[in-house]
Write a structure and sequence with these properties.
The protein is α+β, with helices and mostly antiparallel strands. It has three domains: 5-16 and 25-397, Aldolase class I (TIM Barrel); 404-489, Sandwich (Immunoglobulin-like), CATH 2.60.40.1180; 492-616, Jelly Rolls (Sandwich). 18% of the residues lie in helices and 27% in strands. The chain contains twelve helices and 34 strands. The strands form nine sheets. The chain has an eight-stranded parallel beta sheet. Strand 4, helix 3 and strand 5 form a beta-alpha-beta unit. Helix 5 (216-232) crosses helix 6, helix 10 (353-365) runs parallel beside helix 11 and helix 10 runs parallel beside helix 12.
Length: 619
């Protein structure tokens, strides 16, 4: 079972950009010359950083762009031969951190990688027994870090890099003592004064007592921890096991107050410290994560806890399903974190070359922080080329919104986003276990005609393509393109789902929807519910890229058919909640004249709610 850092230990040592929904389109910032009516193309949606709508933030200067660097956890957690020769998680030592620091400075710093992040275990010995100072704060294990944590940070800074460190949320049980341990710079406060009287546990492993912030001493404890990290010179803190999320729910696992307390404590130190929270955070609390932190893990650990660092199935491929729901909530000051990017070590990574490129492509287009968990002292040539491709790094670091799927989330899918210069970043993915062709139709981007295509991975201009580009991809393969339109805006005809001319079947019904284009949608498409659009008129027969505006709090499927012909199941990515509209384009074969298009939940399935469809005026 995958979870986060503490979870893989034996039980006895268990450690402790918003897109306005009115148009529901592809987020972009195209010049006015490319823009069309709201229903005519998806590219007219406005992009607004979510922070503007969600209250005070930590300073954006700390996380103006997704951070880049290295983290120790992937190698600590792996059973790859030689990585942890002195037992599980023994890789984490001062010597290894300094070695990776020197390698990062020499090989990756010129490309923007700047953080060296020390993960869990720095205050625990190899049997996982912890060290604490006289004030219940974590203290460096003398065997792992004989010169202490300040010395390590000093070395990192001397290389022109930034130092990162790790803590679990809450008061670790071993730090409680008998409840009489004093809190630093807080006269009269002890560990008994900072937690709930019933010693309720918290975090993803129940390894700590939940802090009670109705008691002033609790904030003073966090203040003392933050001052210690600042005095040591750390620039980054990963706060782990945070809930709601991390596999837990309920009041005792609600750590929003902890994250807020950390933000307040960090601000009081006067040192700009990036606050990253982990792991698999609850999306329903995203406003709090954005308000109080600079980044949040959206998924479980990417590491496989096996004989390599990661594997495709466990759990690189999960991100394709999970990232779309978060895409609206990322931007300057706070970023969606997809976890470590382990593509540099060849066989040790546990992936094919195609999978390594696909992995790196998704991280870049999703605007995830780019931090690798590889051994930087033995990057292979292909891995180094992936980690140091300036054009792909620029995709991650650019001002464009994150990409999201513009086609259904089937085995073959296309993701895209609009760039400030009017071009598009477009990624083609074949997630199947066998080779397959993938096509990106310009109609799904909102234009027709010609476009110039560039391949950022290979730094190559591929020429001009008309209406689409098709690539044969290997299993789990991908291509990344920059597409610059030279055609015209796509013209479409909008058909509202709630129109009385449509036919509803089963439980399907019309419901209000403030985010929807007609303020209504058709929902209850489950267990045989159907929505049939009638009188869809086109002049010529052909395959049309029909753009479907829909609402779905989770990924759901619907069978799509035209004129009663064979239905094709299509998986619609989550829009993040039941009040947000997104679009994907679905190929539908239509005849000249009047047609019907049907969305069918199936006899045992649940389909998304449908807002409208936009049908191009030509195939």
């Amino acid at each position: 079972m995958r979870s986060s850092s503490y979870s893989a230990l034996p039980a006895r040592t268990l450690r402790a950009v918003v897109v306005l929904a009115a148009t529901a389109g592809l987020a972009t910032a195209v010049p006015a010359a490319h823009a069309g009516p709201a229903h005519a193309r998806p590219g007219t949606a406005h992009t607004v950083p979510a922070a503007h709508a969600e209250g005070p933030r930590t300073p954006q200067a700390v996380a103006a762009k997704p951070y880049m660097g290295w983290s120790s956890w992937s190698m600590q957690s792996s059973k790859y031969p030689g990585l942890n020769p002195d037992g599980d998680y023994s890789y984490l030592t001062e010597a290894n951190v300094l070695k990776e620091t020197d390698a990062l400075a020499a090989r990756l710093k010129p490309y923007g990688y700047s953080y060296v992040n020390i993960d869990a275990g720095w205050w625990r010995d190899k049997a996982w027994k912890p060290e604490f100072d006289a004030y219940a704060r974590q203290k460096a294990d003398p065997d792992r870090f004989p010169h202490g944590m300040k010395s390590v940070a000093d070395h990192i800074h001397a290389k022109g890099l930034k130092a990162g460190i790790y803590l679990p949320v809450g008061l670790e049980k071993e730090a409680y003592g008998d409840g009489k341990t004093a809190i630093a710079d807080a006269p009269g406060c002890t560990t008994a004064d900072i937690v709930h009287g019933d010693l309720r546990t918290t975090n993803g492993w129940d390894s700590a007592y939940q802090l009670d912030f109705s008691r002033p001493c609790a904030q003073k404890y966090i203040d003392s921890q933050a001052r210690l990290l600042a005095d040591w010179g750390y620039d980054f803190l990963k706060l782990d096991g945070v809930g709601p999320g991390s596999g837990k729910s309920g009041d005792q696992y609600d750590n929003v107050a902890d994250v807020a307390a950390w933000q307040k404590a960090i601000a009081a130190t006067g040192r700009p410290i990036h606050l990253e929270i982990s792991w698999s955070l609850d999306r329903g609390h995203v406003a709090a994560w954005r308000r109080y932190s600079n980044g949040w893990r959206i998924d479980t650990d990417v590491e496989c806890y096996c004989n390599t660092l990661v594997s495709w199935e466990n759990s690189v491929d999960d991100r394709f399903d999970d990232a779309p729901a978060w895409s609206r909530h990322t931007g300057p000051g706070g970023w969606n974190d997809l976890d470590s990017l382990d593509v540099g070590n060849g066989a040790m990574d546990g992936l094919t070359k195609a999978e390594r490129q696909t992995y790196a492509t998704l991280w870049a287009i999703a605007k995830s922080p780019l931090y690798t968990g590889d051994d930087l002292t033995r990057l292979d040539s292909y891995g180094l080329s992936l980690l140091t491709n300036r054009e792909v790094i620029a995709v991650d670091q650019s001002a464009a919104p994150p990409a999201r799927p513009v086609t259904p989330a089937d085995d073959q899918q296309v993701w895209a986003t609009g760039n400030p210069d009017g071009s598009y970043t477009v990624a083609l993915f074949n997630l199947a276990d066998a080779p397959a062709a993938v096509t990106a139709d310009w109609a799904a981007l909102g234009f027709t005609g010609k476009a110039a295509v560039r391949d950022p991975w290979n730094h190559e201009n591929l020429g001009t393509y008309r209406n689409k580009v098709t690539e044969a991809l290997p299993a789990h393969g991908s291509r990344l393109f920059t597409v610059t339109p030279h055609g015209s805006a796509l013209t479409t005809t909008a058909y509202e789902a709630e129109s009385p001319s449509n036919t509803l079947g089963g439980n399907a019904s019309v419901a209000g929807c403030s985010a929807c284009s007609g303020a209504h949608k058709v929902g209850n498409l489950y267990l045989g519910g159907t929505l049939r659009f009638n009188d869809i008129v086109v002049d010529k027969p052909g395959t049309y890229q029909v753009r479907v505006a829909y609402v779905s709090g989770d990924a759901r499927s619907a069978a799509v058919s035209a004129n009663g012909n064979g239905a094709t199941p299509r998986k619609f990515p989550s829009t993040g909640d039941w009040g947000t509209v997104e679009t994907v384009s679905v190929p539908v074969t239509l005849k000249a004249g009047a047609n019907t298009i049907t969305f069918d939940s199936g006899s045992s399935g649940y389909a998304p709610d449908i807002d409208r469809i936009d049908v191009p005026t030509s195939s």
